[in-house]
Amino acid sequence: MDPSQPGAQMSPPGPKNWLVESILVTIFCCIPLGIGGIVNAASVNRKYNSGDYAGALNSSKQAGKWTKTGFWIGIAIWGAYAIFLFVNRNRGGFGMPG
Amino acid sequence: MIFKKNLYFALAVLVVIVLSVIYYQYNPAKYRLFPKCPFHTLTGFDCPGCGSQRAIYSLLHGNLKDAMGFNLLLVISVPFLLVHFSYKIRSAILKKDIRWDVIYHPITPKIIFVIVMLFWIIRNIPVYPFSYLLAGH
Questions:
Q1: What is the ipTM of this complex?
Q2: How confident is the model over B2-56, as pLDDT tens digits?
Q3: Which residue of B has its CA nearest to A41?
Q4: How far apart are CA B80 and CA B75, in angstroms?
Q5: How many Cβ atoms are within 10 Å of B51's Cβ, its own excluded?
Q6: Contacts of B110 in chain A (CB under 8 A)
Q7: Yes or no, beta carbons of B109 and A19 under 8 Å apart
Q8: DSSP letter string, A12-64
Q9: Which of B11, B104, B113 shows the shortest C-beta gap to A11?
Q10: Interchain CB distance below 8 Å, B98 and A13
Q11: Is the pTM of this model over 0.90?
């Protein structure tokens, strides 16, 4: 298969890099935690590409840690926000269509 | 391990469904229930994410042109997200780790970083055609 075509080639097993997930955490929750995830995700790709599999695995674990922390904090923040809106629903918390 | 994976998956699907209903039902431009961008509130400039909520509302109503006017970067990122998560779903169904090479290329994070930074700067230049990128111009 043509390796230049995205997805056409099956990758050899390597650690998960968490890149997309950490970007989503950056956008929807916590910029510092997301950046931590992205930096480690980038280093998973770099290390895996240069043959440093142990290093890539380590970076993958770090990236996962940042991202999962951000994920749960995000759930908590958005949950709290939803509760806040619900509690204040009769005091203009939802706002009016303008 | 499997249970944990399923938990994340179920939670993610639930969140996506709930948010889709909210963003379909309520126009973020008209309701106060949607959070405002702190960067925009403080500085008056658009951040790279500004306009995303209005863009999602427009996309859910099939209005691509409006969505692009609110946040072009978000609209461009949607196909990438769909491909990424289609790989995830296929991996789960086939019980085999299939991956999208693009996400695993060493240059990918750098390219994304550069694009986001350029988008941030260019959309705040108050001159046409750059001003097209301003949320809602």
A1: 0.72
A2: 667 778 778 888 888 998 999 999 999 988 778 888 899 999 999 999 999 999 9
A3: B109
A4: 10
A5: 29
A6: 42
A7: yes
A8: PP-----HHHHHHHHHHT-HHHHHHHHHHHHHHHHHHHTT-HHHHHHHHHHHH
A9: B104
A10: no
A11: no
